[in-house]
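Board work, copied verbatim: Uricase
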Amino acid sequence: MAIVLGPNQYGKAENRLVTVSRNGSVHTIRDLTVSTSLRGDLADTHLTGDNAKVLATDTQKNTVYAFAKQAPVGEIEDFALRLGRHFVGSQEPITGARILVDEHGWNRIDGHDHAFVQGSNEKRTTAVTIEGSQAWVVSGVRDLVVLKSTGSEFHGYPKDPYTTLQETDDRILATSVTARWRYTGTDTDWAKSFAEIRSVMLKTFADKHSLSLQQTLYAMGEAVLQAHPEVAEVRLSMPNKHHFPVDLSPFGLENHNEVFYAADRPYGLIEGSVLRDDAPDAGRAWSTLPAF
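↓ predict structure ↓
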């Protein structure tokens, strides 16, 4: 029996980067978390401890900060493409790179040029993979919390001796959306595409009369693909943030879907992908990313 080294990569995870652009007294904040991963001819460091082909993770970290100084960060997809192409192009043993970027939102305080308040936990994301001369971009959003107070039902499911959940034709539907979409190329107006895709998903969530969170998930992915030919595939992970009506009968009160207990766990987790039947091959786009 032989023992061999399998697929491997290494990098610097979760580099926190904040940039301030100053246009006179008016400042603009960009707040990013950047993770770098490199792969290639790296067997020696694993098998013998020879680090001659290992670009130190500290160097990767420094590169992130230097690139942020040398040119404006711009769209996170472009920043990740620049970093990934730099690592692959400047280090002969390195044949592939994966750059992950989360952007954390800040809003300007009304009436102030250089004071900000942090927005929700929602994050714009991108994952750029470089393999030789090829590049794949998967962008998305995470922690996008949405809720609608009606327009959702859940019934018709199997019943067995362990079933206690009551059917309903009117419930709160709430979830925290993680969505990732795979682009067909890299010649895209990233900011415009992101804003429009986010808007399409929110409108579909709000407008679609839901018989299940699964139905809503598919409708959101389908709407994105119908509106955006530059997208080949959408993957969504949507936990069901349950809101249970509180039994107020012990107090002589009726609860007409007005008072709820918001449970944080356990929760139903609905995940799925929606893609074009003629979508180009995903290549390395999803490698090292969660399935959804």
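The helical segments are 43-47, 57-70, 76-90, 190-207, 213-227.
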